[in-house]
Amino acid sequence: VQLQAFGGGLGQAGGSLRLSCVASGRTFSSYLMGWFRQAHGKEREFVARITWSGARTDYAASVKGRFTISRDNAKNTVYLQMNSLKFEDTAVYYCAGGTNRFDYWGQGTQVTVSS
Q: Taking residues 95-115, what's their average pLDDT?
């Protein structure tokens, strides 16, 4: 399985960005999918995850109420809608997926929020 993230770039504080992650392979629809991020000089941290059906989502406290994870299994794609961006959201964002844990990782996409 290969994961490729898109949609990073420069956003303004208070603004919005949407990340997409496209997966290869026919098993995407059965995968737990998630987003993680790593800011410069910091450890990678969990952002959000979504079950294979989309029935359940979980968020880090720092993004809850601002970010929304969703998926389209017909398109093998998972999304991260990021609203009310803050400077501290600046990081490289990674998508990840797997059957019961995050075995597969994408290459990351840079999100930079200007104040």
A: 94
